[in-house]
Design a protein that fits this description.
Blueprint lengths: L8 E6 L3 E6 L8 E6 L2 E4 L23 E2 L7 E2 L14 H9 L5 H19 L2 H12 L13 H23 L9 H12 L2 H14 L1 E4 L11 E6 L7 E2 L5 E5 L14 H4 L15 E6 L8 E4 L8 H12 L6 H13 L6 H7 L13 H20 L3 H9 L3 H10 L10 E2 L7 E4 L5 E3 H8 L5
Parallel strand pairs: 9-12
Antiparallel strand pairs: 1-2, 2-12, 3-11, 4-8, 5-6, 7-8, 10-11, 13-14, 14-15
Bound molecules: zinc ion (4 copies).
The site of one zinc ion (ZN) has 8 residues, from loops.
């Protein structure tokens, strides 16, 4: 018999931090705090030909290769029973948008895919699709019905992309793929209802920017790079706030990582997704948040939106530009004190005007993507150079002031694999090892204790 699944967290308004997730009971290290499937997924431009447009998997559940969408001839699909919930292989609007996206700059292609996926939810108008659309709308309540929280970046993008979205909707309707339409007026009304307004698009894009998770591809064997295969939005997980010392780690299943370790404790129970269908394996778009440590009831559950190994100025800049908040978590406060002692940058906004040659802006939302990217990368490079120029004595002085708690956190939770940057968590509450959420590396607790005692492992 399967029991109803209940997450160990609930959304709650948190003073000064918007909505976050609070532990509804005491949670042990290694416990699954939350598991859920994505509301919508979208591939990044570089992965359109290798990842399923609906679930971002690289193969069908049985290992068979993806097939090309017969309608658009562009998107790849896995066709698995764990993939599209609606039974449609490729979203109808998404299918037409794919052809229209040709030639757009990559961020706009990805935005158009997301807007088309939302239009498909509207057009489908089933119980499941309406619930998903509501879940998207409910994210990031700071973006209100009157446009509060919509930045210039999203509004500009919405204005550029809305005509294409309307065309995609019109073509989907004309192909009678959504519903047969009696006359021109009805056609127009339906087209407008399914496409939504420019303003709806801007709101959705703002929610997507702040709430979507980047789904990583495995490290490329040749280049050594890890690239983003796509983005996914979740109902509850997208509401988890950031902390540079997080208490949960996110594990994705796009490549079946949750099947490769002891994450699934009760298969009969856990394979029943929230749509109530029992399956042989977990869906590729299933996400789990696993507790790194004990989390007492009432405490906020936090994750890191960036690899925890990112240095202070880079973390704070990226959090500001992408997520539009100033991180002042405990770790940032300690590291800012150190940086000020050392005369280093702390990632404050006033430092950016220096590098931008006096160019001033109040927030990232008015600045163009490419400008912000160039600026952030230039500043990252400079910080890297400063670090590389430090003498061994200076590096030793800096590491000597690190407190034992701080050092142990990194030793316990940061993946030791070179350049991985992943987080280690126990796959369940009674596990005697920890697993990396990025590369799958496993370390036994015995090896960790030996390392703490200073023994060679
Ligand atoms: Zn799929
Ligand atoms: Zn298609
Ligand atoms: Zn922080
Ligand atoms: Zn790793």
């Amino acid at each position: 018999m399967s029991s109803a699944y209940a997450p160990a967290v609930a959304p709650r308004e948190i003073p000064g931090r918007g909505v976050g997730l609070i532990a509804t009971r005491d949670i042990a290290a290694g416990e699954c705090v939350l598991r859920e499937r994505a509301i919508v997924c979208g591939t990044s431009v570089a992965f359109r030909d290798s990842a399923c447009a609906r679930c971002l998997a690289f193969t069908a559940p049985d290992g068979a290769p993806l097939f090309t969408c017969a309608t658009c001839g562009l998107a790849k699909l896995c066709g698995g029973d764990t993939c599209a919930w609606s039974g449609m292989p490729h979203g109808k609007v998404a299918c037409h948008a794919e052809g229209l996206a040709k030639g757009l700059p990559p961020p706009d292609v990805e935005r158009l895919r997301f807007l088309a996926a939302c239009a498909d939810l509207r057009g489908e108008n089933s119980e499941a699709s309406v619930a998903k659309l509501h879940a998207v709308e409910a994210l990031c309540p700071a973006v209100g019905p009157n446009g509060e929280g919509v930045g210039g970046r999203e509004l500009d993008a919405a204005r550029r992309l809305h005509p294409l979205l309307e065309t995609a909707v019109a073509r989907a309707l004309a192909g009678s793929q959504i519903a047969p339409i009696a006359d021109a007026d009805a056609f127009d009304a339906t087209r407008r209802a399914v496409a939504g307004s420019v303003f709806d698009a801007a709101r959705l894009l703002a929610k997507e920017t702040k709430n979507a998770f980047g789904a990583m591809a495995p490290r490329d064997v040749q280049s050594g790079e890890r690239r983003v295969r796509g983005g996914a939005l979740y109902d509850l997980a997208s509401r988890v706030n950031h902390d540079c010392f997080p208490n949960v780690a996110r594990f994705d299943n796009f490549d079946g990582a949750l099947e490769k370790d002891a994450f699934v404790l009760n298969r009969a129970d856990e394979n029943v997704a929230r749509d109530g269908v029992a399956r042989k394996s977990l869906a590729p778009d299933e996400l789990r948040l696993i507790a790194l440590d004990r989390i007492p009831a009432g405490a906020e559950v936090t994750m890191s939106y960036l690899p925890v190994t990112e240095p202070l100025p880079r973390r704070r800049r990226r959090l500001r530009h992408t997520f539009e908040f100033e991180c002042s978590c405990q770790r940032c406060r300690v590291e800012m004190r150190w940086a000020r002692e050392d005369g280093d940058r702390v990632g404050n906004v006033d430092e950016e005007t220096d590098v931008a040659g006096g160019r001033c802006f109040s927030s990232s939302s008015g600045a163009s993507d490419s400008f912000m990217e160039t600026l952030t990368n230039a500043m990252d490079d400079e910080d890297d150079e400063r670090m590389a120029a430090l003498s061994p004595e200076e590096l030793e002085r800096r590491s000597d002031r690190v407190t034992p708690e701080y050092a142990v956190w990194f030793m316990r939770n940061v993946c030791p694999v070179t350049d991985c940057g992943g987080t280690l968590a126990p796959p369940n509450a009674t596990a005697t090892h920890m697993t990396c959420n990025a590369c799958g590396f496993k370390r036994t607790d015995d090896a960790f204790y030996a390392q703490l005692r200073g023994e060679e492992v």
